[in-house]
Amino acid sequence: MPPAPTRWRRGGRSPPRLLQRALLVAAFSAAALIVLILLQHRHGPEPPNPSTAAHARDSSDELLDDSPPAERDPEASHSAGTGDGSTCATVERMGEEAAGPGRGSPEQASLRVREMIRRHFELHGAERVRTLPAHEFCKQGFVLGKASEAGFGNEMYKILTAGALSVMLNRSLIIGQTRGLYPFGEYISYTNQSFTIHEIKHLWRKHHCARTYGRDLNIRVDIFENPAETNVLCSDWNNWKDPIIWFDGATDAVGIQFFLKNVHPRMKAAASALFGLPDSLYARPNTFGELMRAIISPSSKVQEAVDWVLKGANPDIVLHTRMMANRPVRARKAAVLCIKRALQISHIKGTPLVALVSDTPAFVKELKSDISEFAEVLYFDYKLFAKTSGLEIVGNDKHSSIDV
């Protein structure tokens, strides 16, 4: 039989290995503790952290002071509200800071974006691209902007969104037509730096892009209105090889700016270059204004109406109200207060000139009576313009109006 295993018994001469290890660990721990105690007594207590002490002092002062924060130190509270640690600010405060010195200006940012858009269409505009040789033209990418005439504002954002995306992706712009007509072609004209689908199809066949270069003319559609399928946040659109991209469903200024939150650095950088950094409240460019300037222009009749209203004057403030035939009192009061606040911040000398634009003429007349107390008011009286210019008003004149 094999010998029985050795068992440890109390009082034995040779302790087991487990006990030896335990004693060794205990000895090292005791030695380390003694060394730490000696070092602490030798060097003395650690001096308090200045920031911690200051924070504790401020906290104790707050506990001892029962007066409201605004009564203690107005300047200190002002600086605390606008410092880097601030998370909230009123609209008035943000407006004052945006207009303050040393913050950059929206005008400078807009001029930078204007130059960026100009260079883009100089390189990727239709005038140059349509003259490229076949091997270069067939490599070109395009962005489609297609709108109907459902509503001017929403539909124009579709065109402007496509224009912005073409700048971000270095692609040419296509503006879709319906039965050979541009949307709202009676009121605006479009840049000659854009293509039509009909022209692209013609040039694609002419240069044999599909047969010679193996590039079929297909369209990749991304529907922004479908959150579960849109790639606006999670894809690098620069890697898409499809000849035409259609970012459909962006009917406001928000859709294209989702690219500011794109997870890919290249897409995020392209969006930031065009729209400004999301946290830069002081110098955000008027990107859509610059896109409108480059892509569309008013028709001669619209230009005539604008000139008729302004009569050579340059308004200090322009207020646009989209009321859709509503006339709420609270909205009117809010608009008047907003204009007063803007005039105070702007420090305009003399009598300010305010231009009112709305889809509800009756609301404009009510606003005019309130604003006329402190400013000169311009607005578009479409009935008077139609009478003086010989323009025929179609439909019910109670609801017909032209936004100028």
Automatic annotation (TrEMBL):
InterPro entries per record: DUF7810
Organism: Sorghum bicolor (Sorghum)
Protein name as it appears in the record: Uncharacterized protein
Region annotation Disordered: where it falls in the sequence: 45-88
Xref: Pfam families: DUF7810 (PF25102)
Tree of life domain: Eukaryota
Residue ranges of the TM segments: 21-39
Keyword line: Membrane, Transmembrane, Transmembrane helix
